[in-house]
Specification:
elongated, Multidrug efflux transporter AcrB TolC docking domain, DN and DC subdomains, Multidrug efflux transporter AcrB transmembrane fold, Alpha-Beta Plaits, alpha+beta, 384 residues, 5-stranded antiparallel sheet, 14 helices, two-stranded antiparallel ribbon
Length: 384
């Protein structure tokens, strides 16, 4: 309202809409059919294509871009109106009352509550022309006696072109919580089925954000695998024991897999932010296990058996390992509770890191000593 006061009074009233990122289209298709008129193709997209695609699991909406919409033009005859003593406003009001398409309440059908819709609009031009209009003296005349009815198309306000050719495009958005990749596959299959049933209509994929989404996922997974491999190699170089290295390496999947369960419990999805968090925390996930296994190996070099070394080493540094993990959680967890737009972006980031580090602590304290006790070899007995 404050900005409106600074704008010229002669302009059209500005329309302000809230844009939800989750509601933006993820795919835009174009439909073309040389044998169809723009009106017929637009109707085909609205009545056949849109209804079919909206039945795909995860699709939130289908919006037509370009094309034209059907418009029935009622051109009143001034001489007839004057002779019958009725005005254009009276005709308009009566048409609004007789051509209704609105909610009609609720009803119970088959033991279930169903919404009821009142459909009183004319289906054909002849039906509309036969509509009775009340004139002076409570007489009734047909609408086509007062006006000329023309079945035409509205003035085009938008257009879509693909490779220089006019098309009727339609944008597809996903519903909240749906996977972009799953929706993309489902829509592609439905488009293929529509093309098979209507070979005269060609469908082209004009734009999609799913390619970037899938690419980001593969890049993140590749980075996770590379980071895991490098972490294992570094552990092997320092411990110089393939058994100890294998125990430390097992901590990675044992920490990551429960993290996915925690993300699902919190309502998080595998997206760029959560995958980035897991990728960045890859090295940290083996830290606790490395500290545990290194201390166990040190105790074994003192002549202790693997079982005794695992018990004493784990008990010796238990508090230090817990303190390290608690410090990392205390640093990253508050990031998820920041306010504003930045807080919405980093909500999954901080909690994902905190969950992954907590899972690595459980693995280091519960599983790593157990594996070391039964998997590491007694060096003294091996030397004898």
């Amino acid at each position: 309202s404050k900005i409106r006061l600074n704008l010229p009074r002669t302009i059209d009233e500005p329309i302000i809409n809230r844009v939800e990122i989750a509601g933006l289209p993820i795919m835009v298709y174009g439909a073309s059919a040389p044998a169809m008129t723009p009106e017929d193709l637009s109707w085909f997209v609205d009545d056949v294509v849109a209804r079919s695609i909206q039945g795909v699991r995860g699709v939130g909406g289908v919006e037509r871009l370009g094309g034209v919409a059907r418009e029935v033009r009622v051109t009143l005859k001034p001489d007839r109106l004057l002779a019958l003593g009725i005005t254009a406003a009276d005709v308009n009001r009566q048409l609004r009352l007789t051509s209704a398409d609105m909610a009609g309440g609720r009803g119970e059908v088959g033991g279930q509550e169903q919404s009821i819709r009142t459909l009183a609009a004319s289906a054909t031009l002849d039906t509309l022309g036969a509509t009775s209009i009340v004139v002076t003296g409570n007489r009734k005349v047909r609408l086509d006696e007062l006006a000329t009815l023309t079945d035409t198309a509205e003035e085009p306000r938008t257009f879509a072109r693909f490779n220089g050719e006019p098309v009727v495009a339609f944008a597809i958005s996903r519903s909240a919580g749906a996977s972009d990749a799953d929706v993309s596959v489902g829509v592609a299959d439905r488009i293929a089925a529509l093309h098979a049933a209507n070979p005269g209509v060609r469908f082209d994929l004009i734009d999609t954000s799913v390619t970037n989404t899938v690419g980001n996922y593969h890049s993140a997974m590749l980075g996770l695998l590379e980071g895991s491999a490098l972490a294992v190699i570094v552990v092997l170089l320092f411990l110089k024991d393939w058994r100890a290295t294998l125990i430390a390496a097992v901590a990675l999947p044992l920490s990551v897999l429960p993290t996915f369960w925690g993300m699902s419990t919190l309502g998080f999805s595998l997206n760029a932010v959560s995958l980035l968090a897991i990728t960045l925390v890859t090295g940290i996930l083996v830290d606790d296990a490395i500290v545990e296994i290194e201390n166990i190996v040190r105790h074994m070099r003192m002549g202790k058996s693997p079982y005794r070394a695992a018990l004493e080493a784990a008990d010796e540094i238990g508090l230090a390992v817990i303190a390290i993990t608690a410090t990392i959680i205390a640093i990253f967890a508050p990031v998820s509770f920041m306010g504003g737009i930045a807080g919405q972006y980093f909500k999954q980031f901080g909690l994902t890191i905190a969950a992954a580090v907590f899972m690595s602590l459980l693995v280091a304290r519960l599983i790593t000593p157990l594996l070391a006790a039964y998997f590491l070899r007694d060096q003294q007995r091996h030397e004898h």
